[in-house]
Amino acid sequence: MLGLFNTLNLGARALQANQLGLEVTGQNLANSSNAAYSRQQVVLQTSLSTPTALGMQGTGVQATSIQQVRDALLDGQIRDESSVSGYWSSQQNSLENAQAQLGEFLNINSTSSASDAQGLSDQLNNLFNAFQGLATSPASISQRQNVVSQAQGLAEGLNQASQNLSALNGGLNTSVANDVATANQLLSQIADLNDQIGKSALSGGTTNDLNDTREQALEKLAGLANIQTTTNANGTVDVSIAGTQLVSGNKTLDTLQTYNSGNGQLQVRTATGGTPLALTGGSIQGTIDARDGALKTLRDGLDTLASSLITQVNGIYSSGYDLNGGTGAAFFTGTNAATISVNSALQTDPSLVQAAGVSGATGDNAVALALSKLGTQNVASLGNQTFSGAFAAQVGSFGFSLSNANSQVANQNSVSTMLQNQRDSVSGVSIEEEMASLITFQQAYSASSKIISTADQMLQTVIALKT
Amino acid sequence: MRIAGTSYNDSMASQINLLTSRQYKLQSKATTGQSITAPEDDPAGMAQALGLQADNSTTAQYAQNISTLQNRSDLIASALQQLKTISDRVGELATQSSDSLSTSAEMQANASETTQLINQAVQIMNTKDGDQYLFGGTASGQAPFVAATDANGHVTGVTYRGNASVTDHEIGQSSSVTVDAPGKNTSGSGARGVITDSRYGADFFNHMISLQNHLLAGDTASINTVDQPALAKDEDNIINQVSNNGAVQSRLDVAASAASARTSSLNTSLTNVAGADLAQTLTQLTQAQNAYQAALQSSASILQLRTSLLSSF
To answer: Given CB atoms, is A372 within the 8 Å cutoff of chain B?
Structure first.
């Protein structure tokens, strides 16, 4: 038999164990809305049995540890998917921004008039239509003004689109630099957390909350760049990016750095080692791929369109004659979408538009007619497409890139949500479950206190025998 | 499966966001009548729609060209009609004065009227359409015909300052028309001159001046043998011009109808590619709204149950 005093001790241990259970339940409930938190549970174990005349007798319960409920496999999968999500989300954001900057939206309810111009496509059509109008009334000053006005509109539209997309390109470089800075902070934070976890493990303490914070940092880092992790025996985690180890235990071996690869576009390498990193996931690479992929194609396409327009129009135009017999001037100046402009002399005097094919024939429309026909001709430098056809193809191609990014983000959201739900089903706090635990621990605590009060009464009875 | 508290909230928020987004898109489709607005909506459809809009824009410009050319052609028709009236009157004067029965006073009066008719014809041939003279060929910067007169006001000559070139105008894809006619063409090729054309013996001003001079001189023989046959050729030439103008107007009318039909066809294609099926869109919108209400109600019920759980504790 244990005896009444040992029974009192048994009750005290039970009170302590259930109180701890209550505290852990409280901790779980308090963090029920903390997405980074993994639920904890008290591990209860029967305390050591005592040998008695009747054999081994139990001495109650004791709490041996506070265990965190995690699934390392799910954590790893979520980190991997964070990289994929980060990659496609940054592509989607970048390309949606580019779509807005390009400003090519469809309005099928608009009339075909020049004042309803919606974007570059309409402005291109308006220029060739203005040449048509001039070919119909070659001596008309108002038609000449219309040609100059529509050409200015198109040139300014191309300038604006080029400027906007160039600014976006700069913004994406800034975004890469910011993401790299954030990644370096996270690498440093992970090394610090590793240090605390290692020390805590050494002293036998629990590292549950530190693990949560580190996991959150790892997932944030994975969203920026695909990472590889190795968990060490002391609970610390080593981190590598694109095959280069950056964190080893509590040390940051290297950090990330942006560098100009020669064309003004930022790439990523290790700061100390100087090794260019071939990233395959995360928002940093997503931004780089959007910048160097669909956005660059769009910018190059606009430049090709503008340079072809300048070359083709000037090639025909320069042989024409204006109302005063002048010839040989250029219609457009500049070389690409950023620099294309209408000859400034035409802006002040539309009579200088060289619409005639022969000198002194103000009613001749040969050049204006040839320029108007240019709108429906296939141009070799545009892949044997018309100007409007080539631009529509560029818009379509860009749209495919954005549409693909949208689909990937939607798919990735489904995968991430599914994995997150799976992890929550393991690690998330269930309020119903915790409330039930609360009742269990409360009742067990009450029952344990009854053991103590009963043992106390029995002791009182025993003591009273002597008086 | 064990459901964590955050899963409820995340799932509810995610579903409600999804349904809100779907309602927004359907609402946008219903109000704009378009299934495609941005390249991301349907890249292939967007490219096709831009192509159709470009075709539509070009066709609209062709229609505008045709309208402009119809106005010009009407002006030319009116001028030719007036010229024909003058030609008829000059012919009558020549006929009246072609025998010896006409008195000297009648001959002088007819000569005076002929002079006026020449001046009137010069005015007609200097008609402008906007900034462009109708009968100056492509050299339309100045009035094409200038009459010279003597001290008595009789016309001694009419100079042509235009040229014999005319322009083609596009009225459709690979379809062009020549509306203008030059005042004079002695090159032996190209467009027929309205006043003078060496191929057909037409030289209306000089023939009228000749008649004027013969009337002043009382030379009925020359009127009979020289002027009348020459004026007949001028009459034929003008009739030919009127006929040609009629053919051009007819072509323009056909081209206008074709442009209108093509615009209609392109608009239909554009609606097929980028237009929203309103019946389907509104049905889908109703479904989305119902789903949204159901999601809100079920979410509210779950939250209420969880609240009651906490209260019961």
So the answer is: yes
- Give, as one character, the DSSP assignment of residue A268: E
- Answer whether residue A178 shows pLDDT above 80: yes
Does B43 lie at the interface with A, CB-CB under 8 angstroms? Answer: yes
Q: What tokens appear for A119 in the block?
A: 């974007």
Is the minimum CB–CB distance between B291 and chain A shorter than 8 Å? no
What are the distances in angstroms from CA B33 to CA A117, B47, B271, B274, B289?
A: 19, 18, 9, 9, 19
| B135 touching chain A per CB within 8 A | no
Show the tokens assigned to A111. 């009339």
Percentages helix, strand, coil for chain A, rounded to the nearest 5? 60, 10, 25
Across A150-265, the runs of DSSP E, i.e. the strands, are 227-231, 237-241, 244-248, 251-252, 256-260
Where in chain A are the domains? 4-69+430-464, 77-414
For A162-276, strand residue ranges (E) read 227-231, 237-241, 244-248, 251-252, 256-260, 266-270
Q: Which of residues 50-69 of B touch A (CB under 8 A)?
A: 50-51, 53-54, 56-58, 60-62, 64-65, 68-69
Which residues are bridge partners to A276 per DSSP?
A: A269
Residue A112 has pLDDT above 60, yes or no: no
In chain A, whose CA is at the least distance from the CA of B31? A109
pLDDT digits (tens, 9 = 90+) for B258-283: 999 999 999 999 999 999 999 999 99
Record: contact B4-A430, CB cut-off 8 A: yes
Distance between A402 CA and the closest CA of chain B, angstroms:
6
State pTM to two decimals: 0.87
Q: What ranges do the domains of chain B cover? A: 53-267
CA nearest neighbour of B16 among B310, B302, B306? B302
Among B13-17, B89-93, B285-289, the range scoring the smallest mean pLDDT is B13-17
Among the partner-chain residues A39, A388, A398, the one whose CB lies closest to the CB of B39 is A398
Position A115 pLDDT exceeds 60 = no
What pLDDT, on the 0 to 100 scale, is given for residue A117?
55
Q: What ipTM was estimated for this complex?
A: 0.87
Residue-wise burial string across A256-275, b where 16 or more C-beta atoms lie within 10 A, e elsewhere: bbbeeeeeebbbbbbeeeee
A69 touches chain B (CB under 8 A): no
What pLDDT score was predicted for residue B6?
Answer: 81
When CB atoms are compared, the residue of A106, A137, A403 closest to B132 is A137
Whether residue A113 is predicted with pLDDT greater than 60 in this model: the reply is no
- A395-444: pLDDT as tens digits: 999 999 999 999 999 999 999 999 999 999 999 999 889 999 999 999 99
Say which DSSP state A250 is in. Answer: T
The CATH class that applies to domain B53-267 reads: mainly alpha
The distance of A444 to chain B (nearest Cα, Å) reads 16
Closest Cβ opposite residue A360 in set B40, B139, B168: B139
Average pLDDT, chain B: 93
- pLDDT at residue B11 in the model: 86
CB contact under 8 A, B39 and A396: yes
